[in-house]
TrEMBL record:
PROSITE patterns xrefs: FAS1
Listed Low complexity bias regions: 76-95
Region (Disordered): 1-21, 67-101
Species annotation: Cyclotella cryptica
Pfam families reported for this sequence: Fasciclin (PF02469)
UniProt domain FAS1: residue ranges: 105-235
SUPFAM superfamilies membership: FAS1 domain
Domain of life: Eukaryota
Protein name: FAS1 domain-containing protein
Length: 239
């Protein structure tokens, strides 16, 4: 049985669409007019031009919708590139994980030196001749993890008389070989330090502690040679 010829939409169309509002209807009308010669040559030319225009616009709209869909799925927005460029602050003291935008270019020593609340720590690192060590990568290329006490943490410790070697051992008790991010810490975990003694990690109710008394208040401050976590209490090893 031969296929029925397409017919132009009428006002009695049950779907109550406006005449020729869709690409499909316009195409049907163009085919119908060309086959049955119901319109003049000029009108046919206009219909063909309209059909081409609708096709181009429809393709452009579809492309833009698809691009927006991809952006939402990948977590990107039109301002994503600007926001990453404007994210200059590398230090995270909020207790929430935040990585540096792009490649971390500051070493652990330089990162700590750029933050006023770590001026005491930086001064002691200089006294113990450890600034150079934390300014470059480790020999195995895995970097370091530093649990950095704030100035307030050292103030809580009070006046302590230590030799330079003892001071060095206290500071090395805050340094772990390798880059250990917060998601790699677990409750009861034993973490060896460069001092030779271990730290005990405790996790309870979303709070992370070291040796039961030092609270981790900021995590995952990424440097070029490792990562820094902030603590509110100085860790004291056996001297």
């Amino acid at each position: 049985m031969p296929n029925a010829e397409p017919s132009p939409p009428t006002r009695n169309d049950s779907r109550r669409r406006k005449p020729y509002e869709s690409h499909t209807q316009l195409m049907q009308l163009t085919k119908f007019s060309l086959k049955h010669k119901v319109f003049s040559k000029a009108m046919k030319t206009i219909l063909i031009c309209l059909l081409v225009c609708v096709s181009i616009v429809g393709a452009d709209v579809g492309k833009r919708r698809y691009s927006r869909h991809l952006g939402k799925k990948s977590g990107k927005s039109s301002n994503s590139s600007n926001s990453s460029k404007s994210s200059k602050s590398s230090w995270n003291g909020s207790g929430k994980s935040r990585k540096r935008g792009g490649t971390a270019k500051l070493s652990i020593s330089a990162l700590a030196s750029s933050i006023p609340e770590f001026s005491t720590l930086v001064s002691l690192l200089k006294s113990a001749d450890l600034v150079g060590t934390l300014s470059k990568d480790s020999a195995d290329g895995k970097g370091y993890t530093v649990f950095a006490p704030t100035n307030d943490a050292f103030d809580k410790l009070g006046d302590v008389n230590l030799t330079q070697e003892q001071l060095k051992q206290v500071l090395l008790y805050h340094v772990v070989a390798g880059t250990v991010t917060s998601d790699q810490l677990s409750d009861g975990q034993v973490v060896p330090t460069l001092n030779g003694q271990d730290l005990i990690v405790g996790i309870s109710g979303g709070s992370v502690t070291l040796n039961g008394n030092a609270v981790v208040t900021g995590v995952d401050n990424v440097a070029s040679n490792g990562v820094v976590h902030i603590i509110d209490t100085v860790l004291v090893p056996n001297l």
